[in-house]
Amino acid sequence: MSVEPERIRALDGHQMISARQTVSTYAVMLDGGSLETMELTAAQARGFECLTCRAQHTATSGAFRSVGRIPSVGNVFQCLKCVGGAR
Ligand SMILES: [Zn+2]
């Protein structure tokens, strides 16, 4: 099977891949009420990945909890493993 890398990048995964590689600084409003500045990938900032371990948040992985939100971006999530470990 030979697929050119350029073609793979042009497929549907393209946006997701770039979202996973773009790191920015976000001001995150945590559910506890505190405001924290975090360096996150766009995928983390939009709730596609766990805030801590970057596990993928998919439609079938129900085990994610919202832990806060980024104003004008969206909610951020942690997987249950990280939510439990953060105590
Ligand atoms: Zn996690």
Q: What composes the largest sheet? A: 4 strands, antiparallel
**Estimated share of beta-strand residues:** 25-35%
Q: What ligands can be seen in this structure?
A: zinc ion
Overall outline: globular
Write the H/E string, N to C. Answer: HHEEHEEH
Characterization of the model:
The chain has 87 residues and is an alpha+beta fold. The protein is built from four helices and four strands, in the order ααββαββα. The protein has one domain (5-85). It has helices at residues 5-10, 13-21, 42-45, 80-85; strands at 23-30, 35-41, 64-70, 74-79. The protein has a four-stranded antiparallel sheet with strand order 2-1-3-4. A hairpin with a 4-residue loop joins β1 (23-30) and β2 (35-41). The protein is globular. The termini are far apart. The structure holds zinc ion (ZN).
Furnish the topology, listing elements before pairings:
Blueprint: H1 5-10, H2 13-21, E1 23-30, E2 35-41, H3 42-45, E3 64-70, E4 74-79, H4 80-85
Antiparallel strand pairs: 1-2, 1-3, 3-4
Bound molecules: zinc ion.
Brief descriptors of the model:
87 residues, 4 helices, alpha+beta, binds zinc ion
